[in-house]
């Protein structure tokens, strides 16, 4: 038995991943899934149609910044409404991701994906036809509900239908679709920014195309075989598995899924709602802490602030034209997308742990560079030379330089420019109905000719802006391959079968909650700590994340599901070292003995527990 285990263990290390659906159950040394194993086209089709959910997640979160530039003018949106339209989607996503675990167990993965694509479509229609801002808000909340369900269901579905040797790659491709969606959204934003009248309707409404495609695709696509088996629909599960595996012999895999479900049922951890069972079961509780911690630190390292703020960063660097700024923001999301591709390639080469650690270290250093850029800009902030009489007697006249003026949300900086030289500058109140102009004076008419003064809201002109721009690109290059996709990928692998949808629902919920928190607090944090203070704060948080990952994230690459579970059997933070218990190796093997009924038994040796399927 030990030799047999050793050979399987060796093979597991060499071959990469094993099925999440259940442990491999084939005969010891033959038919093991490996890179030469058949790659049934059908599974790619399934992954593509599911990852459209990731695309919609990226599209709907990304498209709003470009749409807002047109919307705020057409609908006279004040800062509060702009904030509401952006954050309501993310808030709704948090709620629906949290409830998605229950929906997944009750309705199944396929129905949840169908529901999500239906909601996306309805949301897209509401948004494109919205007559006023209230209906727009309803549309944004609707779309958020779809995003939440999709964000937690899609990785689970892909993991459950993928053959073992393709699982890691296919789940990470979902993250590629997220950043791809954000990139396409920014291109669509750029293209329709020329359509001044109603351009935003196309931007927001176009998401209906992929969602309708996904909806019709999933009418014909199958349910996860594991969910079917869990619900006792064994005949259907067998048919689906056989279809997904392209007609290969699936008896062994099928038996394994069934065996693992029966094992789960034997060991219900006291019964009750899954979340309580997770909290009572220490290894799964530890996995949940690691999964939620990763999602929390992903957001605390400021990705969405950096992406959202990128348009302002490029304005700060001297690009003042709205359209040019939109296209440069598209370049930012293209960078995010391209470097995610690097992550898909690296994940099986260097492993999840090293990729996440390297990514966080680079992310922290780039955040520090961004902070230094902002610090130098603040120290050399242009002085205010003109103090026009203020009819509103606002706080704006109290500032001596652009820095203080820019940090006050009620004021903006109005100036003339000669090359990099700023002159005739003043700090004046912003127009309450549009931040594009001042409330009165030279910068209030919104026209921008070379002899007209420039209106800078939220930023200051600075000759150190290149440091900030460089920091931004470096940040994305480090974040995108690791901290972007790994929290999603790792979460799809670390929970045992019974806890997978609830574990993913909780961690996705944590992701969305911290997304809202970081984006809602950014401007206030910047007001109190200044921009460089805010970015130094993110640097600190990324470093805390680094310590967390260093201490608590074990390497899951190339391990079987049972080995992954065992990684959480010991202490929570063991610096990635396998816990002593991980020597216990669980192995399912099939004995072709002549029994007509299936029976299951367990044998424990000094270094292994073997679950033997007897037939
Ligand atoms: O993994 C994704 C990705 O990195 C996106 O670019 C980001 O906007 C999301 O918040 C994140 O969850």
From TrEMBL:
Lineage: Eukaryota, Metazoa, Chordata, Craniata, Vertebrata
Keywords: Cell membrane, Glycoprotein, Membrane, Phosphoprotein, Transmembrane, Transmembrane helix, Transport
Protein name: Proton myo-inositol cotransporter
MF GO annotations: myo-inositol:proton symporter activity
Species this chain originates from: Astatotilapia calliptera (Eastern happy)
KW Cell division (keyword) present: no
Known catalytic reactions: myo-inositol(out) + H(+)(out) = myo-inositol(in) + H(+)(in)
Membrane topology: Multi-pass membrane protein
Similarity comment: Belongs to the major facilitator superfamily. Sugar transporter (TC 2.A.1.1) family.
A single GO cellular-component term on record: apical plasma membrane
UniProt-listed Pfam families: Sugar_tr (PF00083)
Protein task: H(+)-myo-inositol cotransporter. Can also transport related stereoisomers.
Top-level taxon of origin: Eukaryota
Region of interest called Disordered, as start-end residue ranges on this chain: 1-33
Localization terms from the record: Cell membrane
Membrane-spanning residues: 41-59, 79-99, 111-131, 137-158, 170-188, 200-221, 287-310, 325-347, 359-378, 464-484, 505-525, 531-553
Location of the Major facilitator superfamily (MFS) profile domain: 46-557
Alphabetical list of InterPro entries matching this protein: MFS_dom, MFS_sugar_transport-like, MFS_trans_sf, Myo-inositol_Transporter, Sugar/inositol_transpt, Sugar_transporter_CS
PANTHER family assigned to the protein according to its UniProt record, in alphabetical order: PROTON MYO-INOSITOL COTRANSPORTER
